[in-house]
Design goal:
Blueprint: H1 2-17, H2 23-33, E1 38-40, H3 41-47, H4 50-55, H5 65-72, E2 80-84, E3 89-93, H6 97-107, E4 111-112, H7 113-117, H8 124-136, E5 140-144, E6 150-154, H9 156-160, E7 162-164, E8 167-169, H10 171-183, E9 189-190, H11 191-198, H12 202-214, E10 218-221, H13 230-234, E11 237-238, E12 244-245, E13 247-250
Helix pairs in contact: 6-8, 10-11
Biased composition (Polar residues): 1-18
Region (Disordered): 1-21
InterPro entries: WH-like_DNA-bd_sf
């Protein structure tokens, strides 16, 4: 056990000496590129650079998941965490388990509770507990399809108001909160992700976005639509001249500067 700790310390020292890029930053960029909140340890291992893995004493595509997790864990904890699922271990953004469930429902409206439970970084008991809380609090709605299968969707209440602590906020503040939530500290945030998170009707979202543009609170940017789905393009923003905007940056209002 002491030998394991010594090896991990030595690897951490080697990485520092080589001035390796921040591991949390690399994993964060990987998650954003794949548009995921979390990935399995195997997926993380196969996606990290061979150079970084060698510095950790690991071989790409061959290292055991337990070894990968052991080597990575000392560098996690600020914005990235390790999670234990029912069958696999995961690494993902630092977020509450309820937010993970909500985000999966947002991405898959009408998903069955059975499919929702698949590949989540939590065991069955914890999943059921958190899902029941979301249903009780009114954040998630459950209906049954023609095959009597329970299907879940986000409540309109999340679209109109977001629960931050004990208070409810809406409009510009909700937009900023969504920007922070889905952006996870990044300046460039996909517009479609903010739209999908807020779940507002299209007119309300577009009007709020235009107001924020008008006083230079936000700046819109283009991007490459060829790597996006049809739905993601539709949920971005097209202005009156037909120009498609994919990302936005929040510069802040005068009192935020």
């Amino acid at each position: 056990m002491a030998n394991d700790r010594s090896q991990i310390t030595n690897h951490k020292s080697q990485i520092t000496n080589h001035k390796s890029p921040d591991i949390e930053k690399q994993i964060s960029e990987l998650l954003k590129k794949k548009n995921k909140d979390y990935l399995t340890i195997t997926q993380i291992r196969n996606s990290l650079s061979a150079v970084l893995l060698r510095q950790l004493g690991l071989i790409k595509n061959n290292a055991r998941t337990a070894d990968v997790l052991k080597r990575l864990k000392p560098y996690l904890g600020n914005s990235i965490l390790a999670y234990k699922g029912a069958k696999s271990a995961y690494i993902g953004f630092k977020m509450s388990l309820k937010d993970m469930i909500l985000d999966k429902i947002r991405r898959n409206p009408g998903i069955s509770s059975k499919n929702l439970a698949k590949n989540l970084p939590m065991n069955k008991k914890i999943f059921i507990t958190n899902l029941n809380k979301l249903l009780e609090e009114g954040f998630v709605l459950c209906t049954f399809n023609e095959n009597h299968i329970p299907c879940l969707k986000i409540s309109a209440k999340i679209g109109r108001q977001m629960n931050i602590g004990d208070s409810y906020i809406s409009g510009r503040a909700a937009f900023k909160a969504a920007y922070n939530k889905v952006g996870k500290g990044q300046n460039f945030v996909r517009i479609h992700r903010i739209r999908e998170y807020l779940n507002w009707d299209r007119e309300h979202f577009d009007n709020t976005l235009k107001e924020l543009m008008a006083d230079y609170t936000i700046e819109l940017h283009g991007g490459d639509p060829s790597i996006m789905t049809e739905k993601e393009i539709k949920n971005s923003f097209t202005d009156e001249h037909g120009v498609l905007y994919i990302n936005l940056t929040w510069w802040g209002e005068n009192d935020e500067r």
